[in-house]
Amino acid sequence: MMKVTVLFFGATADEAGTVNTEFDLPADSSSEEAFDTIISTFPGLTANRDRGDLLYALNREYVSGGEEIKEGDELAVFTAVSGG
Amino acid sequence: MMKVTVLFFGATADEAGTVNTEFDLPADSSSEEAFDTIISTFPGLTANRDRGDLLYALNREYVSGGEEIKEGDELAVFTAVSGG
Amino acid sequence: MDFYELTTEPIDVGENARRIVPQECGATVTLDGYVRRFTNGRETEYLLYDAYEPMAVKEMEKLVAKAKDKFEISNIGIVHRLGRLEIGETSVVISVAAPHRRAAFEACEWLIKELKSKVPIWKKEVYSDGEVWVEGSKQEKD
Amino acid sequence: MDFYELTTEPIDVGENARRIVPQECGATVTLDGYVRRFTNGRETEYLLYDAYEPMAVKEMEKLVAKAKDKFEISNIGIVHRLGRLEIGETSVVISVAAPHRRAAFEACEWLIKELKSKVPIWKKEVYSDGEVWVEGSKQEKD
């Protein structure tokens, strides 16, 4: 297992009830597996995911899919941005 | 005869040697006749006119042609504007 | 000199524009976005902006690099405010200096569009009777 | 509230943008034009702007009215400076506030283009070894 940090912002922080949590993931998880595991832990987020409303970042970059997650990585889950 | 004011700006003021002069014009002059008379008085301006470089205003509006000039009118002659 | 910053302090729009004026340029175009009182007929009391700060700065940095690649411009300055904003206060200002104004207009408009769809910042509208995190759309229009 | 003014004093670009912010709007686009050091490779020492003042104000008033007719915008503020301007000083600032930024960008760009071809103002570029009244073109490009 490996430890990663997971961040939530705005609406996803409200749904998850936290802005920042630590997660244990199986070694060699892909980004898809990692985010699936994370979302399943927060029932409030599954509806958002199923509507395709969530965006995912790994180490402060948008994920494009297939990334390999490593010990200590910073993952983030949020809804479409609304700055400006 | 009637008296009008004629103004020059920038390059036309340099060519005419003045920024502001009074002119006597025949009564019932059209704007074309008025400006022709004015330009002829300032040889420095005829080259500009012949190149089509001059703009004309009557009472602070661009002339569109055929205006009737009246006693006390304010006429102006200048080159294409370059503000901004 | 380019800059891209997050701040919780009020934004000085004029200062932003003047910070990027280089001597070879002729025009700066500035977009000043601020808090509207009414959205879809509903009255906003104030706004809260949240950001994934280090990623937001990284994304702004990428946008600046892309814009300079894409348009004939000299300098870009972007400041986005976070925290609580009252009606009429500036939330974002983007200034672009260029030798010719056409490129400055194009780049400035491109930058605000990209910022609104890519930079991880979220706003919460607070009404007298509730509040909501605004969800953007990836096909942000205006 | 719109405004269109001539001034011989330095222009505060930020103040111009903020003077026209109405509560129903969401974006202000500002064009800040200033004195370039180099034009076609020749170094300018300073500029002199002359205007047919009452007609210039009238023409600016017409442009403001036309722009408000043509674009979905709320307010416009234009200030053009006259007299002697040093390198880097703002000669003209145009701010347009609108509910949606697209209209503000379009109107601002349209206004500077029209101003440069219609408003009776002239600039003289002064070099170390001479000076010249710049002649505009009715098909002003940039």
Strand segment tally of chain A: 5
Q: Largest inter-chain interface? A: C-D, 35 and 35 residues
Secondary structure class of chain A reads alpha+beta
Radius of gyration of chain C: 15 Å
Low-confidence stretches of chain C: none
Output the structural class of chain C. Answer: alpha+beta
Query: Please, how many helices of chain C?
Result: 3
List keywords for this structure.
heterotetramer; A: five-stranded mixed sheet; 3 helices; 31% strand; C: 142 residues; alpha+beta; four-stranded mixed sheet; four-stranded antiparallel sheet; elongated
Task: Note down, in words, how this protein is organized.
The complex is a heterotetramer, with 2 copies of chain A (84 residues) and 2 copies of chain C (142 residues). With 84 residues, chain A is an alpha+beta fold. Chain A has 3 helices and 5 strands. Chain A has a 5-stranded mixed sheet. Chain A starts with a strand and ends in a 5-residue tail after the last strand. A 4-stranded mixed sheet of chain C has the order 1-6-8-2, with helices on both faces. A 4-stranded antiparallel sheet of chain C has the order 7-5-9-10. Chain C has helices spanning 13-19, 53-70, 101-118; strands spanning 3-7, 27-34, 38-39, 42-43, 46-51, 75-81, 83-86, 90-98, 121-127, 130-133. Chain C is α+β, with helices and mostly antiparallel strands and 142 residues long. The mean pLDDT of chain C is 91. Chains C and D meet through α1, β2 and α3 of C and α1, β2 and α3 of D.
